[in-house]
Design a protein that fits this description.
Chain lengths: ~375, ~350
């Protein structure tokens, strides 16, 4: 193995990539745009104040006091909904994201609670589940206000509670979910398409035939290209992570396990690209084949949306897709800090990587028939 | 005792004989048993074949792409492998370059069997594959440096750039070059290790006549430097212009081989004398036929074509014309060319797209 040749090939690959606007776009700009776009759509980024609708059916001093307290947090643009309005159809018509109903008898129940310990009144909180950040913020603000009120009224006994229309189980924001998926997806795309280019375009252009007659060995060439893939993976991960931290204020951890998963991912999908290029020899057809494989995998493996939102049979399919384990592994190691889960996912990724990469290397060759 | 390889003129089999320099001996071919005399060369003359191909065959299913061909290429010559598309040129050259595995036969480059010793000759050969396109986003100079770095033996990249007249393009990206320049860079890449043998597989296909001429100039320059060049082409002008030795391949078989003169002498028609705008053309034709010229024909417009076997015949005809005071506008003698040789050998034209 001549490492001088490997390093030289790596440097020239970086040079070529740096000069390719398409390459730069797909490996750097595209994931950044997606992160910003999806992050903004699903996380309500862009407004420092959250819009909140309140229907005060009680119209008492106490209910008005509750409104005033919410207002004093300065977190909300509060809109009052008239008492005669039907809340359900109002939400539908106006596409309202967050609405609180203070029921009639709010003040009366609180007053009764001094005599009757079981008296209890519930606020209704309507929310849009896709607006996770907004929901989280509103929920925590209401909860702390109510906690304070309950404490004052009854030394902590719950008198005022909240009924929520949907129950949210996720403790993390959408962006926390999305960012590791985006890293996995970008590395997958880069590795598959890069590998296909080397196995179809370079074959058609005679570059592989030319290399075969020079002293460089196939192992040196493959090692150089994998080095380049890992360089791209590192760059992509760093960029997406920085965006996550700076723009979305996320806590992202680059753990050793995450790095191992990222390296294995490069090998995994480079191997997959080699296999596609092996069986679909035309460059354009191979690109289409790669799209046909990677795009459904992107959706089915839970890159953009949690698997739990999908029908059961799709969830079953997800469990045989390598990208699913990449996504889950990265999420568990970088965001959720669930090391046991990430170890299991990482191990599956490494097994997939070994199978795909080794069969890719063994089944492709430089020689012609 | 030194080894001398010889090629059987009858069947093409290549064999070795050991003897002392200057020794003459009668040898018999192991394949066809024909006998012949060879002389063991004196020191410095031996090993003069850069490429030796013996009984090379390539079979794909029912198709025999290359059918038991044998030939040798002398050191320092330009050897053209001429044939139409699909004749087996690229299959042959790629077997010699170890890109394809032969079904049968043996190949030696610089005396080494490539089956077992190809790695030893990689440093000494340079290759331009058919329809080669290099890395799109490297400049001309970077491309040459890249390939040069793959070899232990390195030629001076800037010297190559200069000698191939690429200086003004050296910082251009490969993808922005014209077809002719790309081919020139392809040839330049094949020179980065200062090779002894250069293989150029259809180096001018798809180029316009000007660009083709430029590449020819480059190849002729390699010849001057003493390099052995193995060239495949389907352009007969290319073979005529460049080659010292031509092998014509058709349907996987070598159907003729030799120098251009050999081929024309053996397979072409003789030369033809054309008399332009001759007065009384019909009478002149009659007169020449009576004088014993069998192949005389009218080409219309007073033009006459006469086949001549040897050049003294031209003088005879001229004296007849003078004697009979025949007026004409001009005379010219056209030699047979490879196209005619090919037509004669195969019954078909070599190229449809003569450019």
């Amino acid at each position: 193995m001549n490492f001088k040749i490997v390093w030289m090939d790596f440097i020239y690959s970086v040079k070529g990539w740096y000069r390719s606007r398409g390459g730069m776009f797909w490996s750097l700009a595209f994931p950044v745009i997606l992160i910003l776009l999806f992050g903004a759509i699903f996380s309500g980024v862009g407004s420092s104040k959250y819009t909140l609708y309140i229907q005060d059916q009680d119209q008492t001093e106490m209910s008005k006091g509750f409104n005033a307290t919410l207002n004093s947090t300065k977190l909300f643009n509060i809109n009052i909904v008239k008492t005669d309005v039907n809340v359900t159809s109002f939400i539908k018509e106006k596409n309202i994201k967050s609405l609180i109903v203070i029921p009639k008898g709010f003040e009366q129940t609180i007053k009764n609670s001094f005599m009757n310990p079981s008296a209890r009144v519930n606020l209704s909180f309507y929310f849009d589940p896709s607006e996770q950040t907004t929901t989280q913020v509103i929920r925590s603000v209401i909860s702390s206000i109510l906690q304070e009120m309950n404490k004052n009224l009854s030394q902590g006994r719950t008198i005022i509670g909240v009924s929520e229309i949907s129950t949210i189980t996720e403790n993390f924001n959408f962006i926390d979910f999305f960012l590791p998926g985006m890293i996995g997806f970008t590395i997958m795309q880069g590795a598959i398409y890069g590998s296909i280019e080397r196995n179809t375009k370079y074959r058609k252009d005679g570059i592989l035939r030319k290399l075969l007659t020079t002293p460089i060995t196939r192992s040196e060439w493959i090692l150089a290209k994998m080095l380049f893939m890992m360089f791209l993976a590192a760059l992509t991960t760093a960029l997406i992570t920085i965006i996550g931290i700076l723009v979305f204020g996320m806590t992202v951890n680059i753990t050793p396990l995450a790095i191992i998963i990222l390296i294995a991912t490069s090998f995994l999908f480079s191997g997959m690209g080699m296999l596609i290029g092996r069986f679909v020899k035309e460059e354009e057809t191979a690109d289409t084949a790669a799209g046909a494989i990677s795009f459904p995998m992107m959706f089915l493996a839970g890159t953009f949306f949690p698997l739990e939102q999908m029908p059961q049979f799709l969830q079953t399919i997800a469990h045989i897709l390598p990208l699913y384990y990449v996504n889950e592994g990265l999420r568990n190691s970088m965001i959720y800090m669930n090391q046991t889960e990430s170890l299991i996912n990482g191990a599956v990724v490494i097994i997939f990587a070994a199978v795909f990469f080794i069969s890719g290397v063994l089944l492709t060759k430089w020689k012609e028939d | 005792m030194i080894e001398q390889r010889f090629k059987c003129p009858n069947c093409g089999e290549i064999a070795s004989f050991y003897g002392d320099p200057g020794e003459q001996t009668v040898v018999s071919c192991a394949a066809c048993n024909s006998k012949g005399r060879i002389t063991i060369p004196t020191s410095g003359q031996n090993n003069n074949y850069a490429i030796e191909v013996s009984h090379l065959t390539k079979v794909y299913g029912d198709l025999t792409a290359v059918n038991d061909i044998s030939f040798s290429v002398k050191t320092g010559e330009i050897f053209a492998f001429l044939g139409p598309n699909g004749a087996g040129k690229t299959t042959t050259v790629e077997m010699i370059e170890s890109i394809r595995e032969p079904t049968a036969g043996s190949i030696k480059l610089l005396g080494r069997d490539i089956k077992t010793q190809f790695n030893d000759v990689k440093e000494k050969i340079g290759i331009l594959p058919q329809e080669f396109h290099s890395f799109e986003r490297l400049t001309v100079r970077e491309t040459l440096v890249y390939f040069s770095n793959l070899y232990k033996k390195k030629a001076d990249v800037d010297e190559i750039i200069k000698s191939l007249d690429l200086t003004s393009h050296k910082n251009m990206l490969y993808r922005n070059l014209s077809g002719g320049l790309k081919q020139r860079v392809g040839v330049a890449i094949s020179l980065v290790n200062d090779p002894e043998i250069i293989f150029l597989d259809e180096p001018t296909t798809g180029l316009d006549p000007k660009a083709r001429r430029e590449v020819w100039g480059v190849i002729a320059g390699l010849h001057k430097k003493g390099k052995t060049v193995f060239l495949t082409t389907h352009y007969m002008e290319e073979a005529e212009y460049l080659a010292d030795h031509i092998a014509v391949i058709f349907k996987g078989k070598i159907i003729a081989e030799g120098t251009l003169e050999d081929l024309i002498r053996n397979y072409g028609k003789s030369s033809t004398l054309h008399i332009k705008k001759c007065k009384n053309a019909a009478e002149v034709i009659e007169m020449l036929k009576q004088e014993g010229y069998d192949e005389v024909s009218s080409e219309g417009n007073g033009d006459i074509a006469i086949k001549i076997d040897y050049k003294e015949r031209v003088l005879e005809i001229l004296s007849h014309l003078r004697h009979d005071c025949i007026e004409y506008e001009s005379l010219d003698i056209r030699r047979s060319n490879l196209e005619e040789v090919f037509l004669r050998l195969t019954g078909s034209k070599l190229t449809e797209d003569k450019q």
